[in-house]
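ugh finaly. both done.
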Amino acid sequence: MPHVLAIYEVDRAWGGPEEGGWWFDCGTLVRIVRVVGSADRATDIALRANRLLARLQRTKRPVESLIYEGGRHSVLVFENIAPPAYPAAVRPRYE
């Protein structure tokens, strides 16, 4: 089964006012980097890519910052196809 490595621009979205307010992580597809056959190989490549991205982005504000203006990226692994955004079409709910 093919595994897709994709770069996403990460952000935080407002979840709702429950318990004083909560946020959830979200992201928008920037580009597909690679397709590999093995889940282990895909995970290894993603870990190395994210370590490199962490070094390159160390001067950017963290996603959790109130004054975050975008520009942080992360590599994620999916089976078969990378969605245009995450979380998928359904917004997370507070439980």
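ok and the 2nd:
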Amino acid sequence: MNLPKILIIDDEPNILDALKRTLQKDYEILLAESGQKGLEILKETPHIQIILCDQRMPEMMGVEMLEKSISIQPHAVRLLLTGYSDIEAVIEAINRGHVYRYLTKPWENDQLKIEIKKACEYFYFDRAKDNFLMLISHELKTPLTTILSFTESYLRGIPQTDEEKKHFVGRIQEGAKRLEVLVNDTLDLVTAQTGKLALAKTPCHLKALIEETLLSIHDMLTQKKILLENNPYEDCILSVDEALFKKALTKILEYAIAASDEGGKIEIIIQLQGQRKRDLTVSITHGGEILSKAQQEKLFEPFLVVGDILTHQMGAGLALPISKSIINAHGGKLSVESSKHSGTLFQLILPFSKT
């Protein structure tokens, strides 16, 4: 797993060494003994999450260094390390908007770790917020534009024949359904991630669940000419929320279809495993787009851009986080592995009661 990167800038080697020893267990540490050196590291090293800079340094003060760093890595979270005598500089830095928080010398190690952890959480929240605004605004505008433009044309009497009118109404309905899916997915995700997802569990036959799920994606498979293979498996009774469980499976399969090449293949293997066969394992493999290690680690984070969002290949980055939240709520696990040799594998493991 890739550790978050912290760039620490201080002109005192002993301070750099002390901070590195305190934080290196949980973070990848980069060190610089001057503001200029820190700026060079920022240019050479992408994706630095946190910049921790001392205020009093020769040649370039910490506030100046942090301000210059904005143009190089604007999303990094900036912290200023300072003594109480520099409080005016701290206030100036905060007011100018380029310092998230200041830490005082001398510091307490436990408190320092807490503040760094908060800064890291802020970084990921801020990026998720940016992705949310970009993706949701795009995903909202497209169906809204479709609905408004076709409605306006319809009211102006542009469609003349019954066939043209049917086409216009179809496009309006298509846009409305797309909006409905986006709204429902966003609500489901928020509900799941706040721990308020209520499960209405009932006894359900595994074969019926799988068959109904596969039927719901039949048209998508046909459109991309994708071959779906699944193994013979034993039926059993699952205690699950039927609607939510089918939704989780459907969204994983829809992602696999979207990521697959036209004319490709998706394989589903369903097994009863574990002691006394009390675990259901569903493995879904496709040979399309291969995910990097970094993408695999973040695939279940909301609003992640994996495919080309502007051509709607992967939607708004909600499907897989929703699926994982639903599976987790049932006491199960959802994981992913991806390689050129074996393709991309989603594996769902769920405990169940067998009749």
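summary for the 2nd one i guess: Residues 204 and 242 are 7 Å apart (CA to CA).
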